[in-house]
Design brief:
Helix content is 38%, strand content 14%. It is an alpha/beta fold and 395 residues long. The radius of gyration is 27 Å and the shape is flat.
């Protein structure tokens, strides 16, 4: 199959050399693709394609070669074929209370059993199968106090503990200029952080004046110049319940990227685990562990998210909202590691402060990071806290 891939690339006009092909085999021998077809796609593209103009031809050759291999996406497509949109199920509060709320382990066992038995074909109503309009712990357009959502595409009750569906998000724009002036003013405080040693500078006007007063004998006047710099890392929650705040975060991203020279940004969904995503579509990632090892600890860390999720996403192994994503370490532990690494760190929340005390996960995250509202006032308070280490915040 791999030799067929080589000839397919050649036939589509991708200039692959024998040296690059051997390099790819070395990468496979070291299992850099982690026996995963999607990761193999990116590893092979990084090694074999020398110019972005060949990406489209590479994609066609890849599809032509590997189209018959079943992937997670194809499994999802099979499930979604059996989940036809039906009228949404609406239950009264009394009826909702009669449905038992299960823990994450039981929910996952239910889902895996239904997958194994292929109980996802034309099921409407009911309380077991992966279906629509029912009371089971998995499916779409129904109701369960805690379950796995698949095929619905949007949140209705904000109660799903995991989501087994393919999602894509539009990248936050970094060129939004409307209404960013005040945010720039608030973020400009960061430019006065982190003084970097004294530097000698010739004061030309004072030198001329002193030389004139000294009867023409040259006298240099030097002054100390203190360079200042800000180092900021911005981590943003994307998708799900954060969707309504996309424009607000767009503005913050625009303002931050234009104000700060040493600026890095990453994405996550609900909570941070072993990967940080470098693009909003969550296709490219870096290891959180390697990130913690390699970055300087004098960066100012700003996290943005509503902190509203199932408690299992913070406290359980494999509790991540995305069913296909497995985390060996609970999210709360990763958040604590970030806090230990970056002493100057804050969490910005787009939800109003008055609601945080009623959200269990907001209280848990507020116990790790000082939390501020994602408003102009809250942003200003947060920036001042990063500068001085004190201020009014939620914890």
């Amino acid at each position: 199959m791999f030799i067929n891939f080589f000839f397919a690339l050649k036939s589509y006009g991708v200039p692959v050399s024998l040296h690059e092909w051997i390099t790819l085999h070395h990468a496979l021998a070291r299992n850099l693709n982690d026996c995963n077809l999607t990761k193999f796609y990116y590893v092979a593209r990084a090694i074999l394609v020398k110019n972005e103009i060949y990406y489209d031809k590479y994609d066609m050759a890849f599809l032509d070669t590997f189209k018959d291999i079943e992937t997670t996406d194809e499994m999802l497509e099979k499930i979604l074929e059996g989940l036809k949109k039906v009228k949404e199920l609406h239950l009264s509060e009394e009826e909702k209370k009669q449905i038992e709320e299960l823990d994450l382990d039981q929910i996952l066992r239910n889902f895996e059993e239904q997958l194994k038995q292929e109980h996802y074909k034309n099921h409407v109503g009911g309380n077991k199968a992966i279906g629509t309009g029912g009371r089971s712990t998995q499916g779409a357009w129904g109701y369960n106090p805690a379950g796995i959502r698949i095929g619905q595409g949007e949140s209705r009750h904000k109660r799903a503990v995991q989501i087994a569906e393919k999602r894509s998000f539009r990248n936050y724009s970094n060129d939004v200029t409307l209404d960013t002036r005040q945010m720039r003013v608030a973020l400009a405080h960061l430019r006065s952080l982190l003084p970097i040693g004294p530097e000698e500078k010739l004061n030309l006007d004072a030198t001329i004046d002193a030389t004139c007063k000294n009867a023409g004998e040259l006298e240099f006047i030097w002054e100390s110049k203190e360079k200042k710099a800000a180092k900021v890392i911005l981590m943003m929650d994307v998708g799900g319940s954060m969707t309504p705040y996309a424009r607000l975060v767009e503005r913050l991203f625009s303002a931050a990227s234009s104000q700060i020279s040493r600026f890095k940004h990453y994405y996550f969904h609900n909570c941070i685990y072993q990967d940080l995503w470098t693009d909003i579509e969550r296709r490219e990632s870096i290891s959180t562990q390697e990130f913690l090892k390699s970055e300087d600890n004098d960066y100012k860390l700003i996290l943005i998210g509503d902190a509203e999720m199932a408690p299992s996403e913070l406290t359980w192994v494999n509790g991540a909202i995305d069913y296909w994503y497995h985390n060996d370490t609970p999210g709360l532990a990763w958040l604590q590691r970030l806090r230990d690494k970056f002493k100057d760190s804050i969490w910005m929340n787009p939800l109003p402060r008055r609601s945080w005390g009623y959200v269990q996960t907001a209280r848990m995250i507020g116990g790790i990071f000082p939390m501020f509202e994602l408003t102009l006032d809250g942003l200003d308070e947060g920036v001042k806290f990063l500068m001085k280490g004190k201020g009014k915040f939620f914890n």
